[in-house]
Amino acid sequence: MMVERAMAAEAALGTPEGPDHLVLSEVGMTFGTLDVIPSLSLSVRRGEMVAFLGPSGCGKTTTLRMIAGLLDPTRGRISVGGRDITHLPVHDRDMGMVFQSYALFPHMTVAQNVAFGLEMRRMAKVEIRARVERALAMVQLGHLAGRKPKALSGGQQQRVALARALVVEPSILLLDEPLSNLDAKLRDEMRVQIRSLQQQSGITAVFVTHDQVEALSMCDRIVVMRGGHVEQYGTPNEIYERPATPFVASFVGRTNRLSGRVDPSGRLLIEGRPVAAEGRLPEGAVEVLVRPHRMSLRAASEEPPAGLNSLPGVLTGATFVGDLIQATVRIGAGEITVEQLTRRRSGLPEPGSAVTVAWEAGDTMVYPEGRA
Amino acid sequence: MQIHKTSKPMGILVAVLFLYLLAPVILVFPISLSGDSVLRFPPTSWSLRWYEALFENRAMLGAFWTSLSLAAIVTVLSLVIAVPAAWVMVRMEFRGRDLLFNLFTAPLLLPTIVLGLAILIVFASFGLLATMQGLILAHLVITLPYALRILAVSLATQNMACEEAAKTLGAKPLTVFFRVTLPMLTPGIVAAAALCFLVSFDEVVITLFLTGPRISTLPVELYNYVYNTADPLVAAASVLLILLTLGVILVVERAMGLGRAFVK
Amino acid sequence: MTAVPAVSAGRRPMGGQQVAVALLLPIALINVVGFMLPIFNLARYSFNRATVGGGIENVLTLQNWTGLLGDPFYLQLILNSVFVSLGVTLCALILSYPIALYLHRASGSWRTFLTVLVISPLLTSAVVRTYGWIAILAEEGPVVSAIRGMGLTPPPLMFNINGVFIGLTEILMPYMILALLAGFGRLDPRVEEAARTLGATPWQSFRRVILPLTAPGIALGCLLCFVLAVSSFITPKLMGGGRVFLLATEIYDQAIVTLNWPLASTLSILVLVIFGAALVAYSAVLKRLD
């Protein structure tokens, strides 16, 4: 549900169409004998917010740290605004970074923390004071300027970290799992705040996360990573609706897997029954993915809805979870989940009874078998 | 209800054992106020005469100032040498790092009687016997391992992200060190300083090998005094030593909490 | 989140290597001059010959070693040192164990307070504490008076092995307690409760559950105390009244009084050999406990 709503909001905003600002070309990282990132190329447009999304160990943080200059890439080139920064020391890169642990300097006050980057740029004291004041006002923390970080709540520390990174007006804002240490409610608030600050300042931002909701709701484009590779790079809508691989489909949103076969004439068959799908289909054994909430369920005795794909199965169980009913249905040897919105008089068939599962042709995602 | 709730006999036993453990430290307090001319407990009369005697004892006073300046110099040098060394050990990766760390802390594993003799023989040929330089060097041999260990642990547990954050904000390596790493290391530095001071100030065995009529430290003077005489003078000195130690501990306690400094 | 090595690989300011060497140079120099050189020198001296009047003849000889191991006085001295150290270690263990167990079970500020009490003797000079024992065990001291008060004849406590034993045990107890406490880490009070609910008497649960679980801490504490006892010098010297001969006191006398540095060096190396043996025994015990 969350995902869908977030995407609707995103679609309304549109994507900035600026020139490429940050460019990674064939960047690779090797630790000892371990190829953490074999070769990675991608570019981020000016003013765009891009998420690196993937499970832990996928190389997303390593990539972010290479952009920041905290790690030296083994191979490849990184450039910002056309300027090669691959071997530039961290302190000359002009990046603003928000760390997962916030990394606020514990021995400095909030104001001193925010002023640090400006002092490094040898700015006049008066100017520094004015900018710090503005930055703290921007994150609604002006009243806590004299406090030490220890005396702040998690959300307040997060905002200080954000102000500290933004106040220097860096060329790129880097965010490393910035919301993972916050509780759920605060995370929702901060998502909105970070996104609006980023859009107001028009800064280019890279956001590392393992949380699909954050990536889908906050970012213009998403890089889905796995094992040091880019699995897919696209807008939230593309990632969700047209996942490039079964991995993307199952990592972003949930999905059912069915085994099928495309015969030489190009017809897709599941359990021997023809199923409609859009686009060109790969021949041979295939994996068919359909999202649970795009499927519907009815008793086998009812007429299958016209124009939809339908498969017969046996209802094996149903769980009531408030907004939804999650039904499990056995189809052939496999089992899938169907999600339906609850209504006051929802008439699910009895467990054990024969049912028909139906979905639209456009919701069928087909991949060659074995392409994990 | 916990089954193993301490029983009464156990409590009494532990109290008696604690009494045994603390008896010699506790006892010097009343003895220092003795009015007797020999070591006797309980004293037959009370007075401050032994404190007066202590402050009139020039050898003791001289040794006290030697000890104090020696400990202060050793403490400062230990920090100046150990902080950069600990930084290299923790923040840089190089082959043989663990070996080097073990080598630098190895003097702690050696009995002081052996180390004292070994240093005596070498220092004799360098002309360092009974000199301040010799004492400073010898004390550094045993304070540096403590300082290095405490500072390395503090550095290793420090949040590295803070240094990285400083770098991304434009701070050069030296600036990062002085504006972020060093201030964040303050508790470790205080603990290391306190320990170095106490170790140097209390050191007897190695110092015994290296002192002579020309230069002596307070613990060595006390040792020599106890070796020759048994009167309450040393009790008065002991009380002052204990109070000084307590003062140092209080400083550490204020800075970081005693538990964290010594128990861990 | 994602695993990243703690040290950024590769990137280092220009000349980082030289900087590292420069920063390590002072500590390395002190280590060489004040530790390595002296120890190598010590080992060498144990194979040199002493000449009359404190001189050293730079020849390679086993004379010190054969002389030492062939002399009944030194053999007795070595045995004395080892047995006294073993005895002191055992006493320290027996007296420290209840304190450590009590501390382990205590909680909150009470525990902190008791821990400070245990550590405080460690921060007090060995000379001061030995002096305290001299005061306690002296002819006019509280112990002797108390025994007299009961109408008994007190045994000689000062300036003999008894006094050394009593003082040394107390001086080493804090080390033993801290080592035991460190080893008690894995002693979960619920394990003992479980044993009791299974019908074990307090003694059985101690013997069958607590003791085996705390054995590694006991081994560590014993190693530490033994090693410290063998090399202890201040207490035997001050409380022994010149009548207690142990390895450490003999090293000092040979070095400072007799000025026979080769012999003192040989005795020192012998102490290190005993250390090595204790370490071997400790690892053997640990292996059996696993």
UniProtKB/TrEMBL annotation, chain A:
Gene Ontology MF terms: ATP binding
Domain named ABC transporter is located at 22-252
SMART domains recorded? AAA
Looking up SUPFAM superfamilies in the UniProt record yields: MOP-like, P-loop containing nucleoside triphosphate hydrolases
Look up keyword Signal and say if it applies: no
User: What keywords does the record list, in alphabetical order?
Assistant: ATP-binding, Nucleotide-binding, Transport
Q: Which Pfam families match?
A: ABC_tran, TOBE_2
Q: What is this protein called?
A: Spermidine/putrescine transport system ATP-binding protein
TrEMBL record, chain B:
Name a single GO biological process: transmembrane transport
Looking at the record's lineage, which domain of life comes first? Answer: Bacteria
Q: Which UniProt keywords apply?
A: Cell inner membrane, Cell membrane, Membrane, Transmembrane, Transmembrane helix, Transport
Respond yes or no to whether keyword S-adenosyl-L-methionine is given for this record.
Answer: no
Under the heading InterPro entries, the entry gives: MetI-like, MetI-like_sf
Where primarily located? membrane
- Which compartments does it reside in? Cell inner membrane; Cell membrane
Pfam families for this protein: BPD_transp_1
Q: Provide the membrane topology annotation.
A: Multi-pass membrane protein
Q: Where is the ABC transmembrane type-1 domain?
A: 64-252
* Record field: transmembrane: 12-33, 64-87, 99-130, 136-156, 176-201, 233-252
Q: Which SUPFAM superfamilies match?
A: MetI-like (SSF161098)
A GO-annotated cellular component: plasma membrane
**Family membership:** Belongs to the binding-protein-dependent transport system permease family.
> What name does this protein carry?
ABC opine/polyamine transporter, inner membrane subunit
Organism lineage reads as: Bacteria, Pseudomonadati, Pseudomonadota, Alphaproteobacteria, Rhodobacterales
UniProtKB/TrEMBL annotation, chain C:
The record's section on PROSITE patterns has: ABC_TM1
Annotated ranges, domain ABC transmembrane type-1: 78-282
The UniProt entry, under InterPro entries, shows:
MetI-like (IPR000515), MetI-like_sf (IPR035906)
- Pfam families according to UniProt: BPD_transp_1
Top-rank taxon of the source lineage equals Bacteria
Similarity comment text for this entry = Belongs to the binding-protein-dependent transport system permease family. CysTW subfamily.
Q: What is the lineage of its organism?
A: Bacteria, Pseudomonadati, Pseudomonadota, Alphaproteobacteria, Rhodobacterales
Q: Where found, per UniProt?
A: Cell membrane
Q: What keywords are assigned to this protein? A: Cell membrane, Membrane, Transmembrane, Transmembrane helix, Transport
Q: Specify whether Magnesium is a keyword of the entry.
A: no
Give the signal sequence positions. Answer: none
CDD domains per record = TM_PBP2
Extract the Gene3D superfamilies matched here.
Answer: MetI-like
Its placement in the membrane is given as: Multi-pass membrane protein
Q: What is its main location?
A: membrane
Residue spans crossing the bilayer: 20-40, 73-101, 113-137, 157-181, 209-234, 267-286
> What name does UniProt use for this protein?
Spermidine/putrescine transport system permease protein
